[in-house]
Amino acid sequence: MTTSQQPRAQWLGRWGFLLAATGSAVGLGNIWKFPYITGEFGGGAFVLVYLVCIFAVGVPVMMTEIALGRRGRGSPVDAIRRVVNESGSGSVWALVGWMGMLCGFMVLSFYVVVAGWSFAYVWKMLTGGISGSSVDDMVAVFTANNQNPLSLGFWSTLVTVATMFIVGKGVQKGIERSVGWMMPGLVLMLLVLIVYGLFSGGFGEAVRFLFAFDAGSLSSAGMLAALGHAFFTLSLASGAILTYGSYLPKSASIGRTAIGVAIADTIVALMAGLAIFPAIFANGMDPGEGPGLIFMSLPLAFQSMPFGTLFGVLFFIMLSMAALTSSISMIEATLSWLCDNKGLSRPQAAWSAGIALWLVSTLAMLSFNVGADWTLLGRNFFDWLDYLTSRFLMPLGGLGMVVLAGFVLKSQTFRDELSLPPALYAAWLFMVRYVSPLGIVVIFINALGLYQVSLAADWPWLLGILVAMVVAGEALSPRLGRAPAAR
User: Fold this and answer.
1) What does the DSSP assignment read for 280-333?
2) Per-residue pLDDT reduced to its tens digit, 115-141
3) N- to C-terminal Cα distance for the chain?
4) Which pLDDT value is given to residue 302?
5) In angstroms, what CA-CA distances link 352 with 8, 101, 128, 160, 198?
6) Strand, helix or coil at 379?
7) 415: exposed, middle or buried (C-beta count within 10 Å: 0-12, 13-18, 19+)?
8) How far is the C-alpha of 258 from the C-alpha of 419, rounded, in Å?
9) Mean of the pLDDT values across residues 373-383?
């Protein structure tokens, strides 16, 4: 039996995929970053712009990845190769799959270190290892944890082992069963923390910070933040969603599923804000401290509140679950490729990938202590992993995905998979061909610092580029055997 003919595991239903994909999207960064940038850039006005960006860039790309995965029924490399061969196009496009799979592995290599922080803080909250009366004291606790390679290495190794244990059990018994209780558990703990915030002070200020519709504070930087977060928050171009899509039953609606994931991700992120910021405002702290908000300011706030230790433990357990659901999605592309191409069983693939991940993540972990001075061009190993994935692999992988879908593959491939009415299919195709690529390029240029895009000032030439893309693309489509987006 050939690799392409091997039976492939599937989610038990659309709900399993929805929970798994939402778990992939809801990670550590989303818990603190989205609530913070929402408040910083206009509250409800920012959320409105963000939702527009989600539906213009995030959801179309996500639908594309899911469709490619389900059509190709394989890892990103194998699925794209099969769909490209079906369309009679060049196999060079498999590089997009390789890029996604490599990106997911590289992101996870430093993510397990960050996830280790949340696991460590569960233990610290339980054992009284977090004590102090000032933010400086909390900084000292956080720094001491990072500067100890044995402690930091233990927690990052624990995340790696837990991740491999779950994915090694398979799609249904491992991933689906785990996210089936972790995601509802995460939401339940968020609800408990929100109710706690109602009575601990600062809740009204937190609501105003997150939801006050202040269009005047929505700057060009805020719009770019909304655009960038809309792309990165859904775990796009990292191989995770495409691989998860390869397990999706044929009967499941890709459009409804992708929209459901985007909405669930946004709701959980806003709930996180309602859980976090009441404690911050009640204690007169700065809500704009980034990662420091989670690991420095918030533990201090919990100490000064009734039952603070209990709710601090609940918070960091919730954070650890969010980290773990993201971790298992990022390694799945690698596992799928090992099973499909190397003939390994799920447990063999999991622990083979786990050993490689542990070796690379150990180098990332050492960047905080004994290897802090091992730098190249001013960046240590951890920084290089972050820089290469966020600035290059993700944007380029996403761009390759939409170009592939919009101009290379046969239209019938996506008509079959998406099963959309003609008007909605035309809207999806227009977004994938023109709006999503332009959005990704803007993110790419801005992230690299090549040019600081100002949407308020640069919209005329951006609109001109979009019009030129549409004219050229619609003229080129019939020559490529593709239907124009207007049909």
Assistant:
1) HHHTT--S--THHIIIIIHHHHHHTSTTHHHHHHHHHHHHHHHHHHHHHHHHHH
2) 999 999 999 999 888 887 787 888 899
3) 40
4) 86
5) 20, 15, 37, 12, 47
6) strand
7) middle
8) 14
9) 91
Question: Would the pLDDT of 99 be above 90?
Answer: yes
- For the packed helices 308-342 and 94-127, what is the interaxial angle rounded to 10 degrees? 150
pLDDT at 452: 78
pTM of this prediction? Answer: 0.91
Rg (CA), the chain: 22
- DSSP secondary structure letters along 157-222: HHHHHHHHHHHHT-IIIIIIHHHHHHHHHHHHHHHHHHHHHHHHS-HHHHHHHHH-B-GGG--HHH
Give Cα 30 distance to the centre of its chain.
Answer: 8
C-alpha 155/C-alpha 151 separation (Å) is: 7
Mean pLDDT of 262-269: 91
Cβ count near 220 (within 10 Å): 15
- Residue 483 CB neighbour total at 10 angstroms: 16
Give the Cα separation of 95 and 89 in Å (integer). 13
Return the residue matching tokens 């558990």: 185
What is the band of 1 on the pLDDT scale with cuts at 50, 70, 90?
very low
pLDDT tens digits for range 8-36 = 788 876 788 899 999 999 888 788 788 88
User: Any idea what the Cα angle at residue 66 is, between residues 168 and 115, rounded to 5°?
Assistant: 45
What is d(CA 186, CA 268) in angstroms, rounded to the nearest whole number? Answer: 9
